[in-house]
Design brief:
This protein has 124 residues and is of the alpha/beta class. 44% of the residues lie in helices and 19% in strands. The chain has a single domain (5-122), classed as Response regulator (Rossmann fold, 3-Layer(aba) Sandwich). Helix 2 packs parallel to helix 3 (63-72). This is Response regulator.
Length: 124
């Protein structure tokens, strides 16, 4: 079975490190990292990851705008996206469901549980 490639998009370097550590300690997946929505779009188009973990709250281009840009591009529209967010209210959950995101992982999370959460959400 080929190694999964996960693109982690978060403007906080500490979150990038925790996610990378958790994934690489538990499973043999390749972790790509982006610090902004624009970087995410470029890397996703170039690298075609198996999934994207996307922070919702980022400066300049937030997660929702980034997700919509990914969906608008035929090269990246089929890549599953899981939002990483610190707060999810009922209205936001409805909005995420309307957008057809693959799932939502709440911050804070246990980094060692991430591969299991991703696997459950994406049914891998």
């Amino acid at each position: 079975m080929p190694i999964k490639r996960i693109l982690v998009v978060d403007d906080e370097e500490s979150i990038q490190t925790v996610v990378r550590f958790g994934i690489q300690m538990v499973v043999d997946w390749e972790v790509l990292v982006a610090s902004s929505g624009m970087q995410c779009i470029k890397i996703a188009g170039d690298e075609k990851p198996d999934a994207i973990l996307l922070d919702v709250m980022m400066p300049d281009m937030d997660g929702l705008s980034t997700f919509k840009a990914l969906q608008a591009d035929p090269q990246t529209a089929q890549i599953p996206v899981i939002f990483l967010t610190a707060k999810v209210q009922t209205s936001e959950r409805r909005q995420f469901n309307d957008l057809l995101v693959s799932g939502v992982i709440m911050k804070p999370f246990n980094s060692l549980d991430l591969p299991d959460l991703i696997t459950q959400i994406l049914d891998w």
